[in-house]
Amino acid sequence: MRLLVVEDDKDLNRQIVTALTEAGYVVDKAFDGEEGQFLGETEPYDAVVLDMGLPRVDGIAVLQAWRRAERNMPVLILTARDRWSDKVQGFDAGADDYVTKPFHMEEVLARLRALLRRAAGHATNEIVCGPVRLDTRGGRVVVDGNPVKLTSHEYRLLSYLMHHTGRVISRVELIEHLYDQDFDRDSNTIEVFVGRLRRKLGIDIIQTVRGLGYRVEAPEASS
């Protein structure tokens, strides 16, 4: 999953980016509203952490611009304001959830997990596809109750596919959502990781749709 953090406090920005990176996300960052608005309008983020009190362009204006441009990624707003009217203003602008500063980083991580799950139509931390169970909170995968050891790259790939179970995901989309802007898009990394995942899972839930990409489906649902 690829996230954007827009926060002008450099220390807090760094702390959030570090926590999200350690949790397995690919993270881009911006320090003002102008840069954040541009990135949000031009890059395919799965979710955004957006501060309300930004220089150049404030967070409300940034969020309104994204929604006018039909950028529908989930947005978690950060606000130092604890007046209920400010929170209402954020929701009216298109926010999906909020956290009031100061906050515990675990709360930000939990709220982002919930936003990502809901955006993909999943109600709990556990995503199930046939005998494969992926725990988004613990970062664990089990098959028929047996744990499967995956690298961070393998886990990110499987997680993205399982968040979108049943949908064909192109190679380009996987690269855009799983890797940073410097990734070599001509490499065969995706194909290599798909091959490794199939071997480690030992069950055929990752289908290749020739000319289109990959799709995760439970074995009994495939044909």
TrEMBL record:
Residues 124-218 bind DNA. Pfam families: Response_reg, Trans_reg_C. Keywords: DNA-binding, Phosphoprotein, Transcription, Transcription regulation, Two-component regulatory system. Signal peptide: none annotated. One of its GO terms (biological process) is regulation of DNA-templated transcription. Residues 2-116 form the Response regulatory domain. Gene3D superfamilies: 3.40.50.2300, 6.10.250.690, Winged helix-like DNA-binding domain superfamily/Winged helix DNA-binding domain (1.10.10.10). CDD domains: REC_OmpR_EcPhoP-like, trans_reg_C. Transmembrane segments: none annotated. InterPro entries: CheY-like_superfamily, OmpR/PhoB-type_DNA-bd, Sig_transdc_resp-reg_C-effctor, Sig_transdc_resp-reg_receiver, WalR-like, WH-like_DNA-bd_sf. The modification 4-aspartylphosphate is found at D51. It comes from the Bacteria. GO terms for molecular function: phosphorelay response regulator activity; transcription cis-regulatory region binding. Residues 124-218 form the OmpR/PhoB-type domain. The keyword Transcription regulation applies. GO terms for cellular component: cytosol; protein-DNA complex. PANTHER family: REGULATOR OF RPOS, RESPONSE REGULATOR PROTEIN CARR. This is DNA-binding response regulator. It comes from Chelatococcus reniformis. The lineage of its organism: Bacteria, Pseudomonadati, Pseudomonadota, Alphaproteobacteria, Hyphomicrobiales.
